[in-house]
Structures are given as C-alpha cells and as structure tokens.
Specification:
With about 90 residues, the chain is mainly α. It is built from 4 helices and no strands. Helix 1 packs across helix 4, helix 2 packs across helix 4 and helix 3 crosses helix 4. The chain is elongated.
Length: about 90
C-alpha cells in the first residue's frame, strides 16, 4: 500500500495552516471525526486488509481513507499546536 510521506506532507501543509487556522477553526478541526457509516466502512476494509481478502477496488478505497486520515491527522496536530501556543501566550 502506498502511503503519503507524513514529514513531506507536514512541511507542505505548514503554510496552509498559518493561513487558515484561527483558534476557532483549530478547535473545530481538532473535534473532526468521521461519521459512523465511514468508520464502519474503514473498519470493514481494515479487517479485510489484515486477512488479505481485499479486491483491487477495495484496496484503492482503503488507501484513500488511510491517506485522508493521515492528511487530517497532520492538520489536527497543527491545530493543537496553534491552540497550545494561544493558551501559552
């Protein structure tokens, strides 16, 4: 499975984070979660992946979820850092 290089993505998102992350946006981003239907689908695909029973289409779908989760996790880390800095100031 191809994955996004997190350090590269983090570096590329840094300028974006400085532009769009206000404390209010950061708080909302930190609370962001997938809905129950998406979580169930991710869980089902993860199980099939672990069991080696994925079709090609399922693998591509799962990779998309994983890359999206990585992307959101980096944005959430940037949001948490911004909120920490704003409370420390």
């Amino acid at each position: 499975m191809k994955t996004v290089d997190a350090p590269v993505l983090d570096r590329l998102l840094d300028p974006l984070g400085r532009i769009i992350l206000t404390p209010d946006v950061a708080r909302k981003l930190v609370k962001l979660r997938f809905d129950a239907k998406a979580q169930a689908r991710i869980g089902k695909l993860a199980k099939k992946c672990n069991e080696g029973q994925m079709s090609g289409d399922e693998r591509r779908e799962y990779e998309t979820y994983v890359q999206t989760i990585d992307f959101i996790a980096i944005l959430q880390a940037k949001a948490r850092a911004l909120l920490k800095r704003s409370t420390d100031a």
